[in-house]
Design a protein that fits this description.
single chain, alpha/beta, Rossmann fold, 3 domains, six-stranded parallel sheet, six-stranded mixed sheet, disordered N terminus
């Protein structure tokens, strides 16, 4: 504090309050307009990636607190958002968690992370227990039923990722369209007997992929096999590989990369060569999919961006703008990444 007659210098021992950084400070540091900062923090999909990252870095450097967080102190809000994932050890969820974390931090929110262990009971229990500690929820690959989701979203703002529901805003990673690409790829290599290796029966995306697999295989005159369900972990790969070998299929499309990598290991132990004897296609393009032996052909998608978009959709519920409706559906594109685990069908 500066006292009269002190020549502008604070008295010894007095505290000098620091001014809270403003959105204008962030804009100056990032070299953009204040409107761009506001848009980057509330509607990140409307700002290009390089500009958004520069703004986020500037906000973090200044410890900028958006007005929504300051208002939360007097409104009873916690300024925390809970992100629930079925398996925190699955690398697929790493990128989702990174995307939600960065976007929430930039908007002044704290992320609370919960591993529901592929259990709908644990997921529902966590949602009920955390109602007072979180302003909203992001559910990645939720295992809840439509009725349960409707009940939860009726009480507190919710956004789902890879779990379409009429009652909640949803970010869908469009893996079914890439399943079509994978079938076209396998058919072009001469495969006529194909197998779908199923994930959890409560997984919405698993059902969607199987429905497309069955329909598109029939259109192409392919012989279809379905095995599973299997827990989406490498440890389930041995059982999945043994079951796939019994079908006589020459190619498999697998629920996720972890399960596919486990299958590669088991097939190698059994002397079944990939891709000479059997081709394998995974899904998610997780870290390490290109390092396994052989490198895995898989379905790739912008997973981190899905997390960012989910946060943007949730924030539009928490801080609605009059006259502007909240986005209810965002579809993230996918594509097939071809590597050495797929090849021509055996003669």
């Amino acid at each position: 504090m500066v006292t009269p007659g002190s020549g502008g210098e604070p008295r010894e021992g007095s505290a000098v309050p620091e001014r809270m950084p403003t959105i204008r400070d962030v804009a100056l540091l990032a070299g953009v307009a204040t409107s761009t900062v506001s848009r980057a923090l509330s509607k990140p999909e409307r700002v290009n990636r390089h500009t958004r990252e520069r703004i986020e870095a500037a906000a973090a450097q200044l410890n900028y607190v958006p007005s929504s967080q300051a208002q939360g102190l007097s409104s009873g809000r916690t300024n925390a958002v809970a992100v629930l994932v079925p398996d925190i050890t699955n690398p697929f969820y790493f990128d989702i968690i990174r995307g939600t974390q960065h976007q929430l931090k930039a908007a002044g929110y704290t992320q609370l992370l919960v591993d529901t262990e592929e259990s709908s009971e644990m997921e529902l229990e966590a949602l009920h227990k955390m109602r007072r500690s979180a302003d909203g929820f992001i559910l990645a690959a939720s295992r809840l039923t439509d009725t349960q989701l409707a009940e939860v979203s009726g009480i507190q703002p919710v956004v789902t990722i890879n779990r379409a529901s009429a009652s909640t805003p949803t970010v869908v990673i469009d893996t079914p369209s890439a399943v079509v690409q994978a079938l076209e790829h396998l058919a072009s290599l001469g495969h006529h007997r194909v197998c779908y290796v199923s994930g959890p029966p409560t997984s919405w995306s698993n059902r969607a992929r199987w429905n497309v697999f069955e329909e598109e295989s029939s259109k192409r005159g392919l012989e279809v096999h379905h095995i599973g369900p299997f827990t989406p972990k490498t440890t389930s790969g041995a059982a999945a590989a043994d079951a796939a070998a019994r079908t006589g299929a020459t190619a498999c499309i697998v629920f996720n990369d972890l399960l596919a990598i486990g299958m590669l290991q088991r097939l190698r132990e059994r002397g079944i060569r990939v891709p000479e004897d059997m081709s394998i296609v995974g899904s998610d393009d997780i870290f390490g999919a290109d390092f396994c032996n052989p490198p895995l052909t898989t379905i790739a998608s912008p997973i981190e961006q899905a997390g960012r978009v989910a946060v943007s959709m949730l924030l539009s519920q928490l801080n609605p703008v009059p006259g502007r409706s909240s986005r209810q559906l965002a579809v993230m594109p996918t594509h097939l990444t071809i590597r050495a685990s797929t090849g021509p069908a055996p003669a």
